[in-house]
Design goal:
By secondary structure, this protein is mostly helical. It has six helices and two strands.
Length: 161
């Protein structure tokens, strides 16, 4: 797994800015903007700007947490267990760049929030209550999955060299 640090997330923003709005995913049906707006949601929960209830039973959460803290990656085409709709949600932002700007803002807010609230725990709808380290693991795994979906992980590793 890619190192879990702030630099990973900030560099991912640079890569996202190289995208074209019609870039095709290697799997799934999300457009680049759908994917970015999807990521925004998890960052908003992790930085305390939005709240989400635990959506699964405690038993299901324990199974999901075992996955989260393992070296296993998300499977391609994995379904969001909390989604109540089929297909992509309507876009919220006027452009891909506006969505990326919001993602960058939410990431920065995450690091500021957890720096000033070192004991903060925010509820993840699938993984239950997570502290800073848990959210870093979740966000790293989630971002890696979607970067792979759009072929950006290889670019990121080249970018890192």
């Amino acid at each position: 797994m890619i190192a879990q640090d702030k630099a990973f997330f900030l560099k991912s923003i640079d890569l996202l800015r190289t995208w074209k709005k019609d870039q095709e995913p290697q799997w799934g049906s999300m457009s680049p903007q759908h994917m970015v707006e999807h990521l925004v949601g998890s960052w908003r929960i992790s930085n305390g700007r939005a709240q989400a209830p635990q959506m699964l039973t405690n038993e299901d959460v324990e199974v999901r947490r075992e996955f989260l803290f393992s070296e296993k990656a998300y499977a391609k085409n994995i379904a969001n267990p909390t989604s109540k709709t089929q297909g992509n949600a309507p876009l919220r932002k006027e452009s891909l760049n506006a969505a990326i700007d919001q993602l960058q803002d939410e990431m920065k807010a995450f690091f500021e929030y957890h720096k000033s609230h070192v004991d903060a725990i925010e509820m993840h709808p699938v993984f239950g209550p997570l502290n800073f380290e848990g959210w870093m693991t979740s966000q790293t795994k989630h971002m890696t999955h979607h970067m792979m979906q759009f072929g950006l992980l290889r670019q990121f590793l080249i970018y890192e060299a």
